[in-house]
Structure formats: C-alpha cells, structure tokens
Amino acid sequence: MEIRFIPHALERIEERGLSKELVDEAISNPDSVSGGYFGRKVAQKRLNGKLIRVIYEETSDGVIVVITAYITSKVRKYEGGEKR
Q: One Pfam family this chain carries (predicted)?
C-alpha cells in the first residue's frame, strides 16, 4: 500500500511531534476506521491511553493520501463512549 502525505499533513505531523512511521502504523493496523467529511476516512489507533487519528483519502488506484494526523486524549468521545 502506497501512502502519500500532502504538504499540510507533513507540517501538522512535524508540529505535533508525530512520526511518519506512527501515522503509517495507524493506517496499516488501525483499531478502527470510520467515515469522515467529504468521503474521507479516519483511522484510529490507541497509543498510551490516547488516540492517534489519521484523516485520509483513498484514490481510485489505491493510494492513501494523508490529509492530517493528530493525537487526542478524548478517547471516549471518538470511540463513541461520550454522550452528546
């Protein structure tokens, strides 16, 4: 599977102290994948009590294009445990 990063994603990953390897792992071996805005997908993986969330698009030829990625402590919110 080929994974590409748009410039925005590379900037945000660097700002947030993430590695491309961690983002690759979240996409390749996610705990869950859900639908996002504009037909995008959101891969989530637990990491030391937090979640890494990777927003990406999949092209028609199977290339994964990473839009952004971040770590959050709001595990219950994103795993569906928080009531709205």
A: DUF4258
Q: What are the structure tokens assigned to 65, written together?
A: 């294009």
Measured CA to CA, the distance from residue 82 to residue 63 in angstroms comes to 33
Amino acid letter, residue 28: S
- Whether residue 81 lies inside any domain: the answer is no
Q: What is the CATH number of the domain that holds 47?
A: 3.30.2310
83 located within any domain: no
* Segments of the chain with pLDDT less than 50: 82-84
Kindly state the tokens that stand for 20.
């491309």
